[in-house]
């Protein structure tokens, strides 16, 4: 885990993004998955500014988890091929995005989601297949029938998707490869069943940061967290660097100097994977707007100093902030709006 | 735990607030702590609309955790007496709020925070005293000296504060009362030391929802979560009702009907106290934008149905949403902006 040196004078808590590490991550992914082999997942960073950077790097198709993310991409001119890799039965919201000047594809896994997409005028769908994660996706054996239903409802069937999210963190590469192969066999079977009646439905979309180089069966990979990383993904051996952290100001020091208190807490960090990490000591606990830390060197700290913390889970961390600040050498930080947050 | 009946047709995830339970909670607190005996803590709900309701119920002094909350209250005409119960050394931000047409008091616990407040033109301070929680607050024995320093810097010293946050969840009332008494003895000692040279510094501010009726030593109580409650505070025997939940739409059902999937996940719930709770089955896990649940009755559910979930921790949950929807009988839901979120 590397930490950028220096501090800013930004109001805190501030979400900082290291431009050099970000560029490294973009290049490292593009080397393995160039162009449309990657369909970047926007849910991880929720920012059209970062999506624009990815488009400039050749990745101009996108994955989203919410209709607001889809609408925002299209409004920003990045809507040539946007996949909502998620189900929705909100006909009114689906219609409002389908009517925009972009190309929306949505995941469907049931008669109800097919009906909603058709009623909303959504042009195209992927059949979402359950490949082992207990979440969305149809029985692989039902994919062909659902594709027929979707086509009969006037929807263009572009292929299949399936998210092997339960395999992202398998530590051993060989074991991960075997498990992903078995999971993707389900998706490839579903793909074959769909292709029987829909020969142009060639998309096989899957994967994430944890399987970007393991999943060689899908023809496009949905990864987004690799841009920023976190302490969770950071435990895997991957070519990506930590590029994101939360800067916090030390606002109080214990009378006996045994701990210091920063002004970033539960509202500034995604907490589902636990406390953030600190390179210069231990995080004891977070409160709503505070973080209490035990420094390795208690005498090194003064009120007003800055600390930088690495989130345990990047996606929900970014979603808590209005903006990120892009940090590059000695240049002034550049604000990147997290403009695709909320619903 | 009670759940309001019925569902809405709002886009989901939607943060719902039951008007009847809210009114009950306001009345139940006012009966114990009328008027300025309560200094409601705005960090819990981050909404000037709710603060306005509290002002109308007689509670027109407020506690905040961030300077944005303070500025928002003042802009909304609710700034007659706003306490930032937190430290800041951001002179520029402190000044921007001190210059508004309101009355700002800030907590100080060090020479640095006193200097910042004085440099920013903040008019008044409370001396923040550590009463056992490892977070902000000076050594009780240092309170008198800090008050003298603050007065010498031109700041009006209004009294002391101390937050016994470590005692909120003590389950046994008698044990809690003994512990709170010992904790508040530290604060009262500090208060006496301050009063020696500053006889008008009479405020003794402390407490929270967990100790609102236990802490009879402070002369004002900083509680906010009681308005909404959560599964954590709901374990205490208190006169408050659950008034807040997240409504989610069922977007997928497992092929074997063993689980259902809702469209509210890690980005819609404060997760530091664990998963939200569901009255009609078990929550298995949350993903970024999904919640996977095992229903008690697997045959009762269809795609498109709505579920209502109770957050484990209310404050960070509300901070993730743009608005709450006030629900009252058959009336149309009324949007309450969470206008004091972010920093």
Helicity level of chain A, as a percent range? Answer: 25-40%
Largest sheet of chain A: 9 strands, mixed
- The pLDDT mean of chain A sits at 96
CATH class of the largest domain in chain A reads Alpha Beta
Q: If classified by CATH, what would the architecture of the largest domain in chain A be?
A: Alpha-Beta Barrel
What low-confidence regions of chain A span 5 or more consecutive residues with pLDDT below 50? Answer: 1-5
The total of beta strands of chain A comes to 16
> What is the domain tally of chain A?
2
Looking at the chains present, what oligomeric state does this protein adopt? Answer: homodimer
Tally of DSSP helical segments of chain A: 8
Q: What structural category do the secondary elements of chain A indicate?
A: alpha/beta
Name the CATH superfamily classification of the largest domain in chain A.
Alanine racemase
Shape of chain A: elongated
Percent range for β-strand residues of chain A? 15-25%
């Amino acid at each position: 885990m590397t930490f950028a040196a220096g501090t800013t004078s930004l109001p805190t808590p501030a979400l900082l993004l290291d431009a050099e590490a970000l560029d490294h991550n973009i290049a490292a992914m593009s080397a393995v998955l160039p162009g449309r082999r990657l369909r970047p997942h926007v849910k991880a960073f929720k920012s059209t500014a970062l999506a624009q950077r990815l488009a400039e790097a050749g990745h101009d198709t996108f994955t989203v988890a919410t209709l607001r993310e889809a609408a925002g991409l299209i409004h920003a001119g990045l809507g040539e091929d946007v996949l909502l890799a998620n189900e929705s039965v909100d006909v009114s919201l689906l219609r409002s995005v389908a009517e925009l000047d972009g190309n929306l594809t949505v995941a469907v896994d049931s008669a109800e989601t097919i009906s909603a997409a058709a009623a909303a005028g959504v042009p195209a769908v992927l059949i979402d297949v359950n490949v082992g994660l207990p979440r969305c996706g149809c029985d692989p054996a039902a994919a062909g029938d659902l594709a027929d239903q979707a086509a009969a409802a006037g929807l263009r069937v572009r292929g299949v998707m399936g998210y092997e999210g339960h395999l992202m963190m398998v530590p051993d590469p060989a074991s991960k490869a075997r498990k992903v192969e078995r999971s993707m066999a389900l998706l490839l079977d579903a793909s074959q069943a769909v292709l029987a009646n829909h020969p142009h439905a060639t998309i096989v979309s899957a994967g994430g940061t944890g399987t970007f180089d393991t999943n060689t069966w899908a023809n496009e990979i949905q990864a987004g967290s690799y841009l920023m990383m976190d302490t969770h993904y950071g435990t895997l051996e991957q070519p990506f660097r930590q590029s994101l952290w939360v800067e916090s100001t030390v606002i109080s020091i214990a009378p006996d100097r045994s701990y210091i208190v920063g002004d970033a807490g539960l509202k500034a960090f995604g907490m589902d994977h636990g406390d953030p990490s600190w390179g210069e000591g231990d995080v004891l606990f977070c409160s709503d707007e505070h973080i209490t830390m035990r420094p390795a060197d208690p005498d090194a700290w003064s009120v007003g100093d800055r600390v930088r913390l690495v989130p345990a889970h990047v996606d929900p961390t970014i979603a808590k902030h209005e903006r990120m600040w892009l940090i590059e050498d000695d240049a002034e930080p550049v604000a990147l709006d997290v403009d695709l947050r909320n619903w």
